[in-house]
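ERR on first pass: missing label on line 2. Operator R.T. fixed the label and resubmitted. Corrected input:
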Amino acid sequence: MSDDAVLKTPLHALHIDLGARMGPFAGYDMPIQYPSGILAEHLHTRKAAGLFDVSHMGQALLESADHASLAAFLETLVPADILNLEPGRQRYTQLLNESGGVIDDLMATRPPGADGVLRLVVNAARKAVDFALIRERLPRAMRLTLLDEAALIALQGPLAAPTLARLVPGEGLESMKFMSARPARLAGVETFVSRSGYTGEDGYEISLPAARADMFARVLLREPGVASIGLGARDSLRLEAGLCLYGHELDETVDPVEAALAWSIQKRRRAEGGFPGQNRILRALANGPDRGRVGLRPDGRAPAREGTVIVSAEGAAIGVVTSGGFGPSIGAPIAMGFVDHAHAPVGTAVGLVVRGKALSARVAALPFHPHAYYRG
Amino acid sequence: MAQIRYTKDHEYIRVEGGEGVVGISEHAQSQLGDVVFAEPPPVRKMVKAGDPTAVVESVKAASDVFTPVSGEVVAVNSEVEATPGLINEDALGRGWLFRIRLADPTELDGLMDEAAYSDYLKTLG
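pass 2 clean. output:
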């Protein structure tokens, strides 16, 4: 089979039925937007519930005889504390290269009752690299199983929890806390559900068999307030939520501390080290990084796109925009980028060089739009 | 009587007398999606056919608007700067970007009329 054959998710036919405008993303033919458009889809997710097909992401099971051995292995690749990850909880972390750069960011979930099983969800564009790396390092007694036959559907927004509670009463999904996860039987389908997402809203990510995904999505879409949302709005939602996108804020040259992800490196790992690039990362934790990821708010209405050079008030280049556009819930342009340490404090006046002119902007606090996670 | 002409880049110019009103076509606004920013050129700017003269941006992307003809910008639509969504609602009407005094009306001969543009759109699939 040719390398450039276009891949389709199990919901591809549904997207076509819904009139999506499709486009290529990480080798998949994906819905960029539906007829209502990115602005309407974005705002709908913030006030009701959005259904996202994220089946292109890489899902896998990592298995060993017990949790301690599994954690010890994974901790040689990531800086999060996996050992103390409790059953039924998940953690955001990063696969690191030897210099501490981010190979990918991912979610690691320990199912309830599991002693020796982790579920991993990685980025679509990086899954081949990630899984090859894990395989190469995998001890003989452990196993990596790709869940190629699993779809992944995100339901995000303030109506996500009431909708699932109405659809599957008695499962207690509404009382799950942010970053918890467990199996659940939904609409007759065996699923694995986590209370998480990529929009800043409350919501769930639901892994389920590919063969049932189309039916399941259509059941959800019949519920009042649930609408399908494309990758365009997924991007503007995550930007407003101040969340990193691999290939933009993160790549193999960026370490997690300068990406403002130090919160994802727990105390035990800081004390013990033992992850790739620990010299650079521990030094950045101790002294502060030389550059940092920041939010940016242009004073005017012109968006600053990825690649825009950031200059100081004196006109010297101090950084670059990594994601930029318009924030529909903000009603104004927003961006994220990296600037040198001296210009990282919130409120610093900077210039964004758009079409040859330095437009005035300020370093802004992240997230731009407050998170609405359910913490119980 | 006003005549409308289109470019292959999906700008239109509606000409009346020696002046033309320029904007992006219905097709262009639909492809672009929700327009969130519009920047017309400064009044009195002298431009040559094909120059990037205005900017329109959707949530996802920025697009240059190339002037279909050479001449002097004599007026701009300040309403569309304040309300860029007018380009989606009424691209050929209230969503215009700038008015230009034509330096060389024969440049219009190189542009497509309504029927030719409609045929051209069909070739784009």
